[in-house]
Amino acid sequence: MSLETLLAALADGEFHSGDELGGVLGVSRTAVWKQLKKVEELGLPLNSIKGKGYCIEGGLDLLSAPVITEGIASDVSALISHLDVRGVIASTNAVAMEKAVQGITGYICTAEQQTAGRGRRGRVWASPYASNLYLSVVWEFGGGAASLEGLSLAVGVAVVDALEKSGLSGAELKWPNDVLYQGRKLAGVLLEMTGDPAGRCHVVIGIGLNVSMPASIYIDQPWIDVRSISEPAASRNQLLIAILNELMLLLSTFEGQGFSAYQERWQALDAFAGAEVAMSLANDTIVGKAVGVDTTGAIMIETSAGMCRFNGGEVSLRATG
User: Fold this and answer.
1) CB 242 within 8 A of CB 163
2) What is the CATH number of the domain that holds 188?
3) Overall domain count for the chain
4) Which residues contact 23 (CB under 8 A, 6 or more apart)?
5) How far apart are CA 32 and CA 24, in angstroms?
6) In this structure, are 44 and 147 located in the same domain?
7) CATH code at position 309
8) Cα–Cα distance list, 169 to 74, 226, 255 (Å)
9) Residues carrying an active site annotation
10) Rounded to the nearest 10 degrees, how much is the dihedral formed by the CA atoms of 86, 87, 88, 89?
11) Cis amide linkage into residue 197, ω under 30° from 0
12) What per-residue string of b and e applies to 83-111 under the rule 16 or more CB within 10 Å gives b?
């Protein structure tokens, strides 16, 4: 707990003396120094000046369970069984999957940092401390895999809607589960299922949103963050509240409505609408024009050989123009 208390004290971006921090933590200056080394190990920009003390340059935008809970709409709050705000963990999806296997629904896990966060196709999701949003939600469905058709696309719509309500407009969607801004990745969605593929199952909906990515972080694709787009930007707590307010209502109604309720909105946000694209499969590449998605969320590509549909799996879509 000492490290979390120390980070909360340094979150204002101001200088604090060693004696002051020792008083806050109730420990000696030597113990403070040990905790400060842990701050540096998190990759945070800790600055020290003799006679002034220590500060984290720029401060920290820390997650707060009370702030998040206070901001969630009452009808959404009724859908949440537990909001779990963590510090440093391996993966919010991994923690959420443990709850899913236990049959729990409405569980939400978010964290300041992931050490083993994953994106689609096993890619590493860069997760610097207190910089972005890492969120996983567990939800129960009664109809198995068939009831989940198009869910990842609908979740993308919910994320874009939440961003718009937070003052960020212009985000688009790339099939099947990326949120883009001017062609660069802003957020991603990852779904994992456990249970009966033909009956009652639990799904973990993982969302990663770039909020304030340090320039030093290496990512192997073009990316952008909220702070680069929207100034002043909403806080991480505000963004998380907005996403939960959209996402939980979507989950509570999706099995009854299906993706068809979101198809038109998704089409309006389609980053590749009408573009020449290449769909890379395991042993083949399909080239044609992207013409949107059908009521199941399958992407439709018009080729010289006719219309092709793809429902997901190990595929990759890119523009060729």
Assistant:
1) yes
2) 3.30.930.10
3) 3
4) none
5) 10
6) no
7) 2.30.30.100
8) 26, 11, 28
9) 120, 185, 318
10) -10
11) no
12) bbbebbbebbbbbbbebbeeeebbbbbbb
pLDDT in tens, the chain (321 residues): 578 899 999 999 999 999 999 998 888 888 888 899 999 989 888 999 998 999 998 899 999 999 999 999 999 999 999 999 999 999 999 999 999 999 999 999 999 999 886 655 555 556 789 999 999 999 999 999 889 999 999 999 999 999 999 999 999 999 999 999 999 999 999 999 999 999 999 999 999 999 998 877 777 789 999 999 987 789 999 999 999 999 999 999 999 999 999 999 999 999 999 999 999 887 888 999 999 999 999 999 999 999 999 887 667 888 886
Q: Write the DSSP assignment of 111-134 as a string of letters.
A: EEEESS-B-GGG-B----TTTSEE
Give the closest residue to 299 by CA, choosing from 96, 275, 112, 179: 275
The amino acid that residue 131 corresponds to is S
